[in-house]
Specification:
Blueprint (H helix, E strand, L loop, with lengths): L11 E3 L3 H12 L3 H5 L9 H22 L4 E3 L3 E4 L1 E4 L3 E7 L2 E7 L5 E7 L5 H20 L2
Antiparallel strand pairs: 1-2, 2-3, 3-4, 5-6, 6-7
Helix pairs in contact: 1-3
Length: about 140
């Protein structure tokens, strides 16, 4: 996670845990091994099997490369950015559920809806820091008139 500037209004940026990214990439790359384990592919491997291993290996590497430097969560003065923007003004309640945060939001039409922000991608230290940052910023923005 990058260092946060001393300015309290700066955005808090959170990236996925590198070991979890590597783990997912390896899972993608080695997925065809399951075809051997369940007996759908005969042993020894043939050319189509090698092509499949190369293809899934490339997909696994691409998966990790696309997510390596891209932030998963940004918390700033506007709100919580996680796929989309959840403005502070629309957040009515926040609850921690397992490794996620449940947001109760008020839409422009007056409807109440709930959104889950899954934090399974974060390391344990980042998870604790994310919860602290979100709670602190939520309390600050609730107090503002």
């Amino acid at each position: 996670m990058p260092d946060r500037p001393m300015d309290d209004n700066a955005a808090d940026v959170f990236h996925p845990s590198k070991p979890k990214l590597v783990h997912m990439a390896i899972n993608i790359a080695l997925a065809p091994v399951l075809l051997y384990l369940v007996g759908l592919w005969p042993w020894p491997p043939t050319l189509p099997h090698y092509i499949t291993f190369a293809f899934t290996g490339l997909i696994g590497m691409r998966y990790a490369k696309l997510r390596w430097d891209k932030p998963r969560l940004v918390v700033d003065d506007d709100g919580i950015h996680c796929g989309e923007l959840y403005p502070w003004s629309s957040i009515r309640q926040m609850q921690t559920v397992m490794r996620a945060v449940r947001l109760t939001l008020m839409t422009e039409t007056g409807e109440i809806k709930q959104k889950m922000i899954n934090l399974g991608w974060a390391s344990n230290d980042d998870f604790k820091k994310i919860l602290a940052v979100i709670d602190r910023r939520y309390q600050e923005n609730r107090a503002d008139p």
